[in-house]
Design brief:
Shape: globular
CATH superfamily of the largest domain: Aminohydrolase, N-terminal nucleophile (Ntn) domain
CATH architecture of the largest domain: 4-Layer Sandwich
Helix content: 25-40%
CATH class of the largest domain: Alpha Beta
Number of domains: 2
CATH topology of the largest domain: Glutamine Phosphoribosylpyrophosphate, subunit 1, domain 1
Structural class: alpha+beta
Number of strands: 24
Radius of gyration: 23 Å
Number of helices: 17
Strand content: 25-35%
Length: 476
Amino acid sequence: MCGFVGIIGVGHAAASLFLGLQAVQHRGQDAAGIGVLHQGVVAVHKDVGLVSAAIPSDVIASFPGTAGIGHVRYPTIGGGGRRDAQPFMSQRPSMALAHNGNLTNIPEIERHLASRGIRMASRCDAEPILLVLADELMQIRVTGHTAADVAEAVRRTMAVVKGAYSVVAVLEVDGRETLLAFRDPHGIRPAVYGRRADGAWMAASESVSLDVLDFEVVGHVPSGHALLLRPGEPVVDISVQPVGQHHCIFEDIYFARPDSTMDGGRIYGRRWRLGEQLAEEWRARGLSADVVVAIPDTSRPAAMGMAARLGLPCHEGFIKNRYSGRTFIMPDQASREATLRIKLNPIEEVFRDQRVVLVDDSIVRGTTMRRIVQLVRRMQPRELHVAIFSPAVRNPCFYGIDMPSVNELVAASIPPAEIHETLARRLGVDSLTFLSLDGLGQVAGNAICAACFTGQYPVPLSEEDRGFILQDRRGE
């Protein structure tokens, strides 16, 4: 999971990219970078760390140009570090590219590239997208690439690369600087684009990047489509290989900022509705409580929706250290546990002698929730219940969310009929309630990828593909 921004038609692209990336910093904390197109030549700078550290002010000042892309990285394929940071660039043609998602057929792509005499220099799966796209463009013609050339090259690229990917790139098309955005045939990973009153265009993983730079959202990049964006001109929307919308529902549950809009609408409203649905299912179990408490920050809208539906107060039970990172996207379990110890501090008065419902977005490995329960138990609540506004995670994600092998998923080995009682006992709480799959469908509809809950993967994976991804995650 990563975040990207692309912009064209602004006075100083590098400065705008820096601001846009800060708005999606929550999507990746490992590395950040920018690539700018100026007078037909691409320049790239990338480094490890947060945006403010990886892209210093002197770099921004030294990068001229009105078109460029930027990226924040959370590695789910490839290692950390500068080598695997994005964007990547090619010289033939001159182009910079970044993406969000996971390719699922890396071994197959490597064989395809090797047959063309091309080798990857990193372990990041953005590079093979760039290499395939650049190679296809050069096969069509060496110079003077047209919009039709780009459409054909993207079509050929989609035939080679499989998985979940939303892509932005800058290059010259029809002799003009162009921002290219395209999305995989299933539209699993998000991509939004918008326009400013001065004619500038922008594309990003989330609409919040557009908000900070005064761009108005025009729409979401359709699945299997490619968009060509040029200053002061209408968008060129090319249908390449649409299959059907399968927007990742875990974006809405956990990853995206609540003020973002995605394919299903405003994230805040969807989380609120998930909380309302959870309340109905929680009440149907005959449970009762005195107070609802969100585990910050993702769960706040759902907790408020649940509390409102149940007629209960929703109190702030934890103070969050704003200088800690997101535990889910930490690179290993030791880092996640260390970060949690400094991240949350419970307020005793909210919990003592109360029947409390803790609301959270998901339980993946179970270690974070177990630690939170231990913290709260010290506050001596009369009862402690946990309510999760998503179903139980039973399957790995191969499309860009760091949900590891099935052996590391705490719910995977527990029969569905026993999940609430068994996991409540393991965590040490009085009850545990997951949102049902039916309840998720009532709120989110069917145009989603929910493979982590259902095991139904919209993009099929071979055993070779699965083995490669799991081996890469183990660092082998």
